[in-house]
Each structure stands twice: as structure tokens, then as C-alpha cells.
Design brief:
L-fuculose-1-phosphate Aldolase; homotetramer; 8 helices; carbohydrate metabolism (chains A, B, C, D); Aldolase_class_II_sugar_metab (chains A, B, C, D); Aldolase_II/adducin_N (chains A, B, C, D)
Amino acid sequence: MSKYQDIQQACYKANMQLPELNLVLFTFGNVSVADRNLGVFAIKPSGVPYKDLVADEMVIVDFDGKIVSGNMRPSSDTKTHAVLYKEWDKIGAIVHTHSTYATAWAQAQRDIPIFGTTHADHNTVDIPCAPPMSDEMIKGNYEFETGYQIINCFNERKLSYEEVEMILVGNHAPFAWGKNGDKAVYNAAVLEEVARMAYLTEQINPKAPRLKDALIDKHWQRKHGKDAYYGQ
Amino acid sequence: MSKYQDIQQACYKANMQLPELNLVLFTFGNVSVADRNLGVFAIKPSGVPYKDLVADEMVIVDFDGKIVSGNMRPSSDTKTHAVLYKEWDKIGAIVHTHSTYATAWAQAQRDIPIFGTTHADHNTVDIPCAPPMSDEMIKGNYEFETGYQIINCFNERKLSYEEVEMILVGNHAPFAWGKNGDKAVYNAAVLEEVARMAYLTEQINPKAPRLKDALIDKHWQRKHGKDAYYGQ
Amino acid sequence: MSKYQDIQQACYKANMQLPELNLVLFTFGNVSVADRNLGVFAIKPSGVPYKDLVADEMVIVDFDGKIVSGNMRPSSDTKTHAVLYKEWDKIGAIVHTHSTYATAWAQAQRDIPIFGTTHADHNTVDIPCAPPMSDEMIKGNYEFETGYQIINCFNERKLSYEEVEMILVGNHAPFAWGKNGDKAVYNAAVLEEVARMAYLTEQINPKAPRLKDALIDKHWQRKHGKDAYYGQ
Amino acid sequence: MSKYQDIQQACYKANMQLPELNLVLFTFGNVSVADRNLGVFAIKPSGVPYKDLVADEMVIVDFDGKIVSGNMRPSSDTKTHAVLYKEWDKIGAIVHTHSTYATAWAQAQRDIPIFGTTHADHNTVDIPCAPPMSDEMIKGNYEFETGYQIINCFNERKLSYEEVEMILVGNHAPFAWGKNGDKAVYNAAVLEEVARMAYLTEQINPKAPRLKDALIDKHWQRKHGKDAYYGQ
């Protein structure tokens, strides 16, 4: 039995949640799940319809983006995943989708303002939209550079990837991550819903203010602080 | 057999309607059902996915917010429910969701204008949006104060909780209630649909007028007045 | 076997299409089907959830709105149906819903402009929005007067109910009709989709022009003219 | 066994994908699949509900629009399909729908701007909206002329039908095509999603810029260029 079976299975299950949560049309999305001990991650093969996915066809790739095991070509976004795993050593899974509302914000090249507690339950900041990449980065090692565009954005804004587990890449689409596949997919779905609510909020009130600091802090603390009292 | 079984079962069934009616993503909502004779209510355990809910795990809490029975931690919003039961003695169930359109109006910090008979069949007033809470209330006993923010809003506007069975808490999300679990969930779903229709109405005609008084009165009376002729 | 069985069955089946087509929330809609020879129509009982409907509980009412047979209270909108059957002698079924987009246009008090061939396949005019009723009509025999508000609107605009099989009642919601239950429900669903497309059209281009006359005529004729070539 | 059985079966399967992908209401759409060796195509019979479709009732038509085999009347749009097959000799299937967002852009008479990589994965240009047809074309051989309106638009803009596999016909609705039925339906669904995202993008940022050339080129090349690395 393969030593990669656990992450292949976790990766398969996480990928299959994307169509269930209406986060993908056709094959417009992918999830990877890492094994930090082995220094590799499992990722969806490129262009395979979800209904045809099989767990043991998840491709095994190392953190430099080199294929370690598998007969199929991995997701075309594999190098972006590799960079994020390499640079951010506490994430265990990554999700990329073209979910409708989050992608619309990315195309609009705007951060998603923090308008309410649904957002504050997950983040204390506007969800960042990294600017479109420079022509040099695009014409170079594109997917590799996409990873660094994400990391640079976090560094410039002094954000922690452990607190803010999602980003929009300008003109492109969202990425989300987490400690494991379930959490990363959860974050991708939360991002889509927060994006939809923020869009509607501005339509209903173009001058809607950002959430006040006391509420941002309260909702974050009750779910993630040292005295958190949400969940079991 | 537990004396709480009836409200646990009613609470379980009411909670399970939330995903069926598309009112919740993941665990972003909760329903409680009270037994006025016993002076307690049953409420969803915190953070448990709907598909994993079990009726006898509904937590039993008194109207001061103290756990009376149950091994799980109750919803993080439990104290808000407790305050409403304590202050408003004729409500039998409470629903809290982050349903998309109602939450967008809450984030926009606007009352939902009464634009048509769909609204007037259920309310005679704009659906109130309580202002965001003061920093003192937020930093104090937050969920407890959320209950009082709701009650204060009704008192200031001289609204009756028996007639208007729903509210938006500014920057947060909606609450609805009713004589029992089914009615409270019904009200939460009506609020979401009325919120959606009002949003679309303003998009189609930014100068759409409020419903005229004669229609407000007629639709309310035919469904709720002493000579009501709606239903069996 | 009851002589009303055929229309009760047809009425039951037509009503059951409303939730399938996402045209109703809870009980916010009703369908009636007439038997012109017997001078009566079958209509949904008031306030009964669709899942609990039974064909032989459809209430039989005459064209003056008097109950002829049945133990249940008919839809609160029954008199509106009666007036339309009495005044327009070629319609065989009527549908009333509060479908989301059509209701939003009714609340916005605007006709739905004819923007494309989807609309022209079914109508050659903007879909009329009758103005909100006068206070006298509302305070009088309300549902009866609603029927006359619809008929007056058609008369004033010189529209034919045989060509235009749908209307919005201002501040209220849509009505549609047709030769039988299936056609009336079809019209209600077409109205909802046309309402949605027209809303989006104006959002995408606030100056979108109405459809040109040649296209209006062509699409109408190819589906409904004497040399129609649509369908079998 | 009929020599048309293969395209009838492929045509049937492609048509049945339209309701699954939410691209049609009732019968508002049709797919055809061609056999280039036989010089014919199979197309949906006119006005038949999808649930009643049967593969061997797909009508066989030649590239001049003449019925070759079949007892039913073909889609009213058949001549438009015939013209496209005749003029563009490398397409194997055509889809016409009135899908909601694409139709709204057609009614708005606007090209869909290329705002992001979801679009660039499939096209390098704004999705063209052919202007509404002249009165002469409409009053003449309408469906035949609709085909030429599409071809004229591509010629005037110097677009290749092999690269851009979709178009909006102003005031009407979208057409898409591809090498086979699956690809043509895929293109129709991508068009609908791109139309929806572009609408939302402009709502979120009315000044959203078009995608930069480097990204347009990169995404097209990685999926369709000579060194493409998307898919298996």
C-alpha cells in the first residue's frame, strides 16, 4: 500500500466537495493536501472531470513542484501550490477555484471590505486582492510567480497566513488554504459567501461603512482567541 | 424518558429545516425551542454540522442562559436567545441565521422598506435594523447585550414583538421568532425572501415608493385580523 | 365519481408544478382550472402546503366566487379568479404567484420592457403593470376589485387577454392565465424568466433600447401567426 | 440500423445536457451535431420538452436546411445551424440557448469584456455581440439570415470561428459551437458563466479594466498553444 494513500484519499475527498458546494463549473478548480513529513503534496490531475476522479490518480508532487509519483499530469496550477507550501510551513492544504462572486471581486481588482460579523468570524481584515502580476512575472515561470505574488502581497501588508487563510489574485481568481483539506475547502466556501454578501451590501447601500473595530475584535476572539467559546 | 424530549425533538426538526430552506451555510445558524412551563429552552450545540445533529444532543438552558442539561456546549448565541425568552414571554422559538439577503441589509445598516403585499402579509412596518451596538456593550457581555439591543430597538420604535416577529441586528445578521419552531423558521425564510425582493425592487426602481397604507392594512387584516380569511 | 374530478386533477397537477419551477415559497401562490360547461372552477384550498395537497380537496367555485363543492376554504384570492373567468370567457386556467423577479417589478410599479426575442416569443408589448388600486377598491371587496383592476388595465391599454396572458398588479404580484393549467403555469414561469432577464439587461446597459418592431413581429408570427412554424 | 444513428445519439445526449447545466427553461434551446462525411446534421425537433426527447426522433437535415430524414419538424432555428455548417467547415456541433446572463448581454447589445483568466482560458477577445439584424434580413429568410449575421460579424471583426467559439446575437440570445456536441455544450456553459462574472465585475467596479495583454496571451497559450500544458 502506498505511503501516499492518506493524502491521496484526503485530496480526493476535498476535491469532491467543490462541486457539492457549487464552487466549480466543469474543472475550474483544484485542491491539494500536503504530508509535511514526506515533504510532498497530492493534487488533482489536470482537466479531469470531478465525476471521473479516482483517489489513487491524485498526483504526488514535492515542494519544488517536481512530480514524485503518478502517471497523470498534475493541475496546471501545481507550481503555485508548491510555492505556498514551501514558503508557508504550517499550511496543510490549498484550494483554488473560479467561484463566481470571489472571481468577480478579483476581476474588479478590489479587496473585499469587512462589512459584518460573518466576515469577522473568519478574518479581521479586508480580504486582500493581490494586484495583477507584472508582464515579466507573467511571461516568466507564470504559476511559480503566482505563488510569489500571493506571498509578496501578504508580506507588504504584514498579514499572517495563519490568520488570513484566503486571497484574491487580481484578474484571476481566489486561493484559500488551511491546516487540512476540509478546512481549506471550508475557507473557499466562506470566501465565496462573504464575497456575495459584500457585493449585495454595496448594492443596497453604496456608503455602507466597514465593521467597527470592537465587533471585529469580539467576533474574532470568540471564535479564535484564547478564550474562544465557539464549537465543541 | 427525559422531560425535555419534546422540545429537543422540536428543536432538532426546526434546525434541520434551515439547510433545506437554504438559510445556512455550514453551521451559520441556530434554532431554539422553549418550554414555558419548565422555564427552559432547547438549543443547537455550537459548531455541529447539520448532518451530524442528533435530537437528544440539543442543549437545555434556562432563561438566564445557564445550562440545565446536556453534555455539549450550546450555540455561542445562547445568551441572546435567553434574554429574548425572558423579556418577551409569549415567544416559543427563536431562529438566528446569516441568510444572504437579510444579512446584506444588516450589513448595509438599513431597515427593509415595505414595498409590497408579500411583506404586508407578515408585517405592517419596515423590518427594523437595530443599530450596531456600542463598544461598551460589545466589550461587555456581548451575546447578552445583543438580546437587549433587539429589545431596546423594539421599545424605542414602539413595536410589538407579537406582530413584528423579525429583526436585523446592524452589521451582524437576522433574528426571527414565533410561537413555535415551525413558525419561527417560517418567519426567517419569509424575511430572507422579503429582503431579496426589496433589494431587487430598488435596483429596478430606485424611487420605488413604500406600500400605501390601505394595502398594508388590508393584507395584514385578511391574514391576521379578527375577520381573517386566509388559511383553514 | 364526481363530475368535478377532471378539473380537480388538472388543478392539483398544475399547482404542484409551482414549487417544481421555483415559483413559490411556502404557500405564496395558487392555480385554478375551469370547466366552462359546468360554469365552475377548481382552486387550491387556502394556506395548505404543497406537500400536503390532495386532488379531491381542490375547492369548486362558480364564476361569482361562490363555493359549489368542497369542505375547505378556497384560496383567499378566489374572487380575483372568479372575476377573470366571468369577464374573459376564453381562459381555462389562472395562476397567481409571488415569484421573486416578477414581484420585484410589480413592487417597482413598472411595466417590463420588451428587450428581446425571449419576450417577443410570447408577447408583442411591454408586460403591463396595473397601478396600485384606489383606497376605495382596497377597502371594498378587495379580491373582487383586484380582478377588475386587471381587466380595466387591459381595457385602457386596448390589450387582448388572448394575446397577452400575463400581468403585474402594482405593489402586489403577477397573474398569468391560459387555455389550460399547463399553459397558465408555463406563462407564469416565462413571466418570471422575462422579468429576470429584463432586470439584468438594464443593469448591464441602463440605456438598452426596446426590441425593434420587425423582430417583435417576426418572433410573434413564427410562433403564433397563421404560418407559425414553431412546435409540432 | 440507420447511418444517422451516431449523430442522433450524440445530438440527443448533447441536448439533454442543457437542462442539467441550467441553460434552458422549457424548450428554449437546441443542439445539432453534424456528420461531415454524410453532409448532414441531426437537430432537436421543435418544441419537444427535454423529458420527452427520444434519440431517434432527432431530425436529419442537410447543409442547405432541407430535411433529409425524420417525421418531426426540426427546431425553428434549423436554417441558422445549416448556414453555419455550410460556411464554417470545421465545426461539428452547434448550441443555441436563451441562457439568462448571456441573453441579458445580448439584450443589452454589448460585447462581453474580457475581465479575467476564466474568460482568457477560452478566448482572447471580448465575446462579440452581433448587432440586431436589419429589417430586410428579419422580414426575409429570417433564420437563414441569422446565420449570415453571425458570419458577417466574424468577418468584419476578423475573428476566427476556430478560436472564438461563441457569439451573442443582439436582442436575441447566444450561439456556441465546437468540434463535437460535448465541446459545443461546454462552450455554451462557459459563455453563460463568463457573462455572469462580467456582469458582477462591472457592478462591483464600474471602471474595471480589461485583462492585460500578457495575461490574455499566457492563459490562452497554456491551454491552447503549441506548448499547452492543461489537461491530459
